[in-house]
Each structure stands twice: as C-alpha cells, then as structure tokens.
Amino acid sequence: MLCNNNNINIEAMRRHSTIRTISAPTVVARNSTPVAYPGSPLHLAVEFCANPPAHAARWLHGDRVYTPGNQYGNTVLAYGVTDLPTPYCKEARLTYVSMHERVPRTFYFIVSSPGGVAEAIFKVNFTMRYRTIANAIDDEEEELSEPEEIHFPVFDSSNKSRPLTKYLSLLIYSIIFFLYRTC
Fold this sequence. Notes:
CATH superfamily of the domain at 21-124: Immunoglobulins
Largest sheet: 6 strands, antiparallel
CATH architecture of the domain at 21-124: Sandwich
Radius of gyration: 31 Å
Low-confidence stretches: 1-19, 132-139, 141-157
Helix content: 10-25%
Strand content: 25-35%
Order of helices and strands: EEHEEEEEEEEEEEEH
CATH topology of the domain at 21-124: Immunoglobulin-like
Number of strands: 14
Mean pLDDT: 75
C-alpha cells in the first residue's frame, strides 16, 4: 500500500520493523545463604538481566544504601557492575570487609528498569568459628616458641595408684575443657 502524501510504503515498514517487548528484570543471587565468620570478609554476588537495560542498581543493608562502583570507608566495597557474556546481563558484587555479630544479617540487591523492579535477598548465616588450641595464649600476651612439656611421676600399676590416675585424668580434662570454653 502506498501512501500518496509522503510517498512511503507503510506495509514494507511494518514487515521490517521489530517489536520491542518490555519485560521485568531478573536477579539471581549466586549464594543466597552465605556463611560469615567473625572478623572474616563476606562476599556477595548477583547476576541480573534487564531488557531494556537497568537504570538503577543498589545494595541495601539495614539502614544503608550502597551504589555499585563505590567504596564506603574501610568496611564496604560495592564493586562496579560488569558485563556478562549473555546480552543484557550483568554482575554486581559487594564485599563487607570484616563481619561481626552486630552486623545485620540480611542484605538486598535491587535493580530497576523501565520494565519493573527485581530483587535478590541474602540471609547471612553468622557462625562462630571454633578456635583450635594454639601455641599462643592471647594476642596481647607473649607467644610460646615451643610447647611446654608436662612430666608426671610414674607410679606402679597396683590399685593404690588408680585414685591418683583418675584425679590426674580429671584434672587434665578440666584444663582442656576450660581452654576450649575460653577460646
């Protein structure tokens, strides 16, 4: 069909035009229940896809908002968004440098585009690490260079030495239990 006024073939334009669909973005957390230990860093990562492209992405944590590509003091690194091999897909990462028990345990990542909003939720499993009995008492006290040796007197194997053996075993067990509980 030929339009007389502008000499444009409308039917040809309809065949060659592409239909642009607008869809909501998608977000996938790489690990939605990460484990964090006291004093250790926490690393979070998401992949998100948006066509049309996303115009905003944010990390939410407690009452704080982190924008990708920024560093927040010495405690939070919100790395810049990077492209993934899949078209319209990107990756965002966040590092909380040193976790401790007072840090809120839920993190959110929110992305928005003209098609809508999507989120990923991270529920952090904060776990106290079991400390092994080391050759150091505390960071503030001196470190032993070699383990100390404890020598016990040798008794004969008759029945009269058994109460002492039981007492020594109980004493050693109590010391180990005390050290374990204080670590």
